[in-house]
Amino acid sequence: MAKEIKTIGVLTSGGDAPGMNAAVRAVVRTALSKGIKVKGIERGYNGLLHNEMRDMDLRSVSEIIHRGGTVLYTARCLEFLTKEGQEQGAQCCRDNGIDALVVVGGDGSFKGARALANLGIPCIGIPGTIDNDIACSEYTIGYDTAMNTAVEMVDKLRDTTQSHDRCSVVEVMGRHAGYIALNVGIATGAIATLIPERPYDLERDILDRMSFTQKTGKKHFIIVKAEGVPGTAQDLANEIQARTGIDSRATVLGHVQRGGAPTLRDRVTASQMGYQAVYLLERGIFNRVVAVSADQIVDYDINVALAMHKTIDTKMIDVANTISI
Ligand code: ADP
Ligand code: F6P
């Protein structure tokens, strides 16, 4: 028989994402509704190593559903990559009476959770990252907010780009993944969208498209580049200017994409996922990652989840190339 869960810990780890607060709120309130106590662990796995945690009551998560960032703070914790660090984390859970842990973060954070699970601390992962690059889930908390922030920024850039007949190269986040870039490229009518998953050819994918559309009367250009595409936005803007004579500017949107009030989609998904995490623990279903599949909340064994692969929808590239011309 699975051990009874009386107290759970919850932490946020890795890069923050809008909606993490909504997930923490959902975990706390769902657990309390079932008579399970909750400890909020601060700064990811660092909190486990330094015993930084606080008891969470219903009001401890008031006024956070609409706030970006994470009230539990987040961090990267190199010590947790070591066996000693992981054993210390598991011992901290035992010392504090934490029977199970909910980890909101990305694949790296889930690997930490798996290490704890292997040391006897049941864990549940909740996907939280703006990059949408968690293999087992079609959707990750923060993705929608980040894309909407980026679209708002690119719309502003378009105004000034158009006034000056310029070319704007805009870099959006995504160190390893082009999901944000691809959607933002389509949503803002970028003449070219560059993603790490598909190497680009300067002539074919940018210059030829610019010159073709120039002949049809287009005078300003937006190029969306994911952070993970080799080369800087500035170098690309310089190259375009040198090759076309079109005045070009580079803008790196950066961490502005990680902040701000979560959208409805992020709040609702985070709430569903936080609820599901506690639902699983209460039923003795351990070591799972909560995910979205076909618009439904599902869960996978943590080993299965970490072995999964996700591919970008290449048809989206065709959509972008066909329409943004
Ligand atoms: P994300 O969770 O967004 O993928 P990281 O890859 O930076 O972010 O991981 C966040 C934290 O998770 C790391 O700082 C570390 O504490 C922990 N972590 C990452 N990878 C592992 C691993 N292989 N084993 C144990 N812990 C890990
Ligand atoms: O949250 C994911 C992400 O935004 C990546 O796209 C980016 O490369 C990374 O985080 C940067 O995070 P940080 O500056 O916190 O290391």
Protein described:
By secondary structure, the chain is an alpha/beta fold. It is 42% helix and 18% strand. The chain is built from 11 helices and 11 strands. The strands form 2 sheets. Strands 3-2-1-4-5-10-11 form a 7-stranded mixed beta sheet, sandwiched between helices. Strands 7-8-6-9 form a 4-stranded parallel beta sheet, with helices on both faces. A hairpin with a 2-residue loop joins β10 (288-293) and β11. It is elongated and about 70 Å long. Bound molecules: adenosine-5'-diphosphate and 6-O-phosphono-beta-D-fructofuranose (F6P).
Summary of the model, kept short:
With 325 residues, the chain is an alpha/beta fold. The chain has eleven helices and eleven strands.
List keywords for this structure.
11 strands; elongated; binds adenosine-5'-diphosphate; binds 6-O-phosphono-beta-D-fructofuranose; four-stranded parallel sheet; alpha/beta; 325 residues
Helix and strand string, N-terminal first?
EHEHEHEHEHEHEHEHEHEEHH
Task: Return the structural class.
Answer: alpha/beta
Largest β-sheet summary: 7 strands, mixed
| Helical fraction | 40-55%
Terminal-residue CA separation: 61 Å
Cross-sheet strand order for the largest sheet: 3-2-1-4-5-10-11
DSSP strand tally: 11
Topology:
Layout: E1 7-12, H1 20-33, E2 37-41, H2 45-49, E3 53-56, H3 83-95, E4 100-105, H4 107-118, E5 123-127, H5 143-163, E6 167-172, H6 179-188, E7 192-194, H7 202-215, E8 221-226, H8 233-244, E9 248-252, H9 264-282, E10 288-293, E11 296-301, H10 302-307, H11 314-323
Helix pairs in contact: 1-9, 5-6, 6-11
The protein binds adenosine-5'-diphosphate (ADP) and 6-O-phosphono-beta-D-fructofuranose.
